[in-house]
Design a protein that fits this description.
Elements lengths: L16 H13 L4 H20 L12
Helix pairs in contact: 1-2
Length: about 60
């Protein structure tokens, strides 16, 4: 296998225990990893935001939090 560029950042997410348990359940039912489910929800949130407010300028996405 060659070198695969990983452009993902690692972050910590703190959740209420009940929310976490339900997200784990949804992930299993959807046959995704927990991380995959969170990524899917983030992408959906961004898509909805941009549909309602226009694209997020690239200049606003260059810096780390």
């Amino acid at each position: 296998m060659g070198n695969i560029k990983n452009d993902k950042i690692q972050t910590t997410l703190r959740l209420n225990a009940a929310v976490y348990a339900k997200m784990v359940y949804i992930s299993k039912v959807s046959r995704r990893s927990f991380t995959g489910q969170v990524e899917l929800l983030c992408a959906a949130c961004i898509k909805k935001f941009e549909a309602e407010n226009g694209p997020i300028p690239e200049s606003e996405t260059q810096s780390e939090p």
